[in-house]
């Protein structure tokens, strides 16, 4: 009977040459895309001359060792090694494309959840909306919600951030390079009206959630409004009329202007739904009220 070690030597190369591909699905993928696990290519990355002593033994027992054979083996090994970098590069490119696609899919799902929530919030408050309702409106499975938000409050906070981030930028642009308070009034109202039309569901959400039972959302809205007032007070400090005012008076004027703008948003939403022909009237009234504030500021004697 041949020694046991001889059978092991004959079997080992075959085992060493065996390879397999392991498919796996990331639990974070929204679309369940199947990709190759990096470890599945370990055999491909192994050196071409692995287990030299065993390969040498098999080669000498099965065919004569000739110069041409050695040369052919060398060329074959060299060719295999030279082709592997391109294989790894291909896998890397495929992985990069896969990551990019998953990122796009996640962003699309997140947007669908936000838009689905806004649809539900047109006639009720956020604390009366369930997570399953949101996912149903978004067309995704309920489990997908928790890949983006921990609770319904977190979704509300994102909606607050979205509308105020764009509104603040619009108002900065409206006040940019303006030296007259009356110009600020006109530009600010124009920018607000345009923004309300472009983001009407967001404003319906904000107006209702000012008095929401969800404390985090309510506080976030009030914080954003205070920030809005602070930025406006900073701009007022650059105007000739109010440039020498103390900070508390600047903040007082800014608060009155912002309060008027919030009230204007509420009125515009009402007339857009019930009497759209009254919109020009609301806009003209708002501009007039802002002028009262700004013209009054020219005669104001700031407290010290």
Please give a structural write-up.
By secondary structure, this protein is mainly alpha-helical. Among the domains are: 94-149, Homeodomain-like (Arc Repressor Mutant, subunit A, Orthogonal Bundle), CATH 1.10.10; 151-299, Tetracycline Repressor, domain 2 (Orthogonal Bundle). The chain is built from twelve helices and two strands. It has helices spanning 4-17, 42-45, 52-62, 67-120, 131-138, 142-145, 152-175, 181-198, 200-209, 215-236, 247-274, 279-299; strands spanning 23-25, 34-36. Strands 1-2 form a two-stranded antiparallel ribbon. A hairpin with an 8-residue loop joins strand 1 (23-25) and strand 2. The chain is elongated, with a radius of gyration of 34 Å. It starts with a helix and ends in a 5-residue tail after the last helix.
In short:
With 304 residues, the chain is an all-alpha fold. It is built from 12 helices and 2 strands; from the N terminus they run H-E-E-H-H-H-H-H-H-H-H-H-H-H.
Features:
Tetracycline Repressor, domain 2; 12 helices; disordered N terminus; 304 residues; two-stranded antiparallel sheet; Arc Repressor Mutant, subunit A; 2 strands
Q: Termini separation (Å)?
A: 111 Å
For CATH, the homologous superfamily of the domain at 151-299 is named as: Tetracycline Repressor, domain 2
Largest beta sheet: strand ordering: 1-2
Question: Number of helix segments?
Answer: 12
**Quaternary structure type:** single chain
């Amino acid at each position: 009977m041949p020694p046991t070690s001889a059978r092991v030597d004959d079997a080992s190369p075959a085992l060493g040459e065996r390879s397999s591909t392991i498919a796996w699905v990331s639990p974070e993928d929204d679309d369940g895309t199947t990709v190759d696990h990096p470890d599945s290519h370990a055999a491909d990355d192994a050196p071409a001359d692995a287990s030299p002593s065993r390969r040498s033994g098999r080669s000498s027992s099965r065919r004569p060792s000739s110069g041409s054979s050695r040369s052919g083996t060398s060329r074959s090994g060299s060719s295999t090694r030279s082709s592997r970098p391109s294989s790894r590069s291909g896998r890397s490119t495929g992985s990069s494309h896969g990551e990019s696609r998953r990122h796009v899919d996640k962003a699309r799902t997140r947007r669908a959840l936000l838009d689905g929530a806004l649809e539900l919030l047109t006639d009720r408050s956020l604390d009366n909306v369930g997570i399953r309702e949101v996912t149903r409106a978004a067309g995704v499975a309920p489990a997908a919600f928790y890949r983006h938000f921990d609770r319904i409050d977190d979704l509300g906070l994102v909606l607050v951030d979205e509308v105020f981030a764009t509104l603040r930028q619009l108002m900065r642009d409206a006040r940019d390079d303006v030296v007259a308070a009356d110009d600020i009034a006109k530009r600010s109202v124009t920018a607000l009206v345009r923004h309300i039309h472009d983001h009407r569901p967001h404003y319906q959400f904000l107006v209702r959630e000012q008095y929401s039972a969800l404390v985090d959302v309510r506080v976030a809205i009030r914080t954003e409004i205070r920030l809005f007032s602070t930025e406006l007070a900073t701009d007022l400090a650059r105007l000739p009329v109010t440039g020498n005012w103390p900070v508390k008076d600047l903040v007082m004027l800014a608060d009155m202007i912002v309060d008027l703008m919030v009230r204007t948003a509420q009125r515009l939403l009402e007339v857009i739904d019930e009497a759209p022909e009254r919109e020009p009237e609301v806009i003209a009234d708002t501009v007039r009220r802002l002028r009262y504030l700004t013209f009054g500021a020219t005669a104001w004697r700031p407290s010290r």
